[in-house]
Amino acid sequence: MTTVEETTITRTTPDNSVEEVCQTWTIWGSSCYLYVNTSAPSWDAAVAQCLTYHNSAHLVFIGSASENDFVKRLVGPGKYPWIGVTEIEGEWVWSTQGIAVDATLTYSNWVSNYNSHADQDCGFLQTNNGKWQSHKCNAEDVFVCELEQ
Ligand SMILES: [Ca+2]
Ligand SMILES: [Ca+2]
User: Fold this and answer.
1) Which ligand is nearest to the CA of 4?
2) Does the keyword Disulfide bond apply (predicted)?
3) pLDDT tens digits for 12-36?
């Protein structure tokens, strides 16, 4: 059990409206999404990059099997994008900017051994099977941003 390190996020957010951002992203349900197919150097860096697109954008929060399936298809097979789930003080939560936005994982799709490594506190999606797995937060990875409309 570890506490996620606090990071200072540099805001370079343009003043684009949600509508302007979503025009170039993929709309699904009440959100729009961007798959970033270039690795960020860490989970926190991926959070920060989402914020550069809009100050309400965050790593994707997956709340249902249908949203999980949408994200899987958006990214395509054989990828391991970061999602917005992280372990804070022993609890897995949807989090952005160091704040637990939703402490209840009403839906989850973890592999069975996801919680077996104390130093793996950030979650990613395995797009081959839709399962979530944990990884060291300072690992490079592609990622998916979400912005609620
Ligand atoms: Ca969502
Ligand atoms: Ca852990």
Assistant:
1) 2
2) yes
3) 556 789 999 999 999 999 999 999 9
Question: How many angstroms is it from 58 CA to the middle of ligand 2?
Answer: 21
Sign of the alpha-carbon torsion through 2, 105, 62, 17: negative
Dihedral (CA of 78, 60, 100, 9) sign: positive
Instruction: Please tell me the distance from the alpha carbon of residue 120 to that of residue 148, in angstroms, as a whole number.
Output: 28
Inter-residue contact 95 to 86 (CB < 8 Å): yes
Single-letter residue type at 2: T
CA-to-CA distance for 51 and 21, rounded, in angstroms? 12
pLDDT tops 70 at residue 9? no
Please state the pTM of the whole predicted model.
0.89
Per-residue tokens: 38: 């270039």
Q: Which two tokens stand for residue 123?
A: 């979650």
CA of 139 to the centre of ligand 1 (A): 23
Residue 87 CA from chain centroid, whole number: 13
Per residue in 31-89, pLDDT (tens digit) is: 999 999 999 999 999 999 999 999 999 999 999 999 999 999 999 999 999 999 999 98
Amino acid 135 reads: H
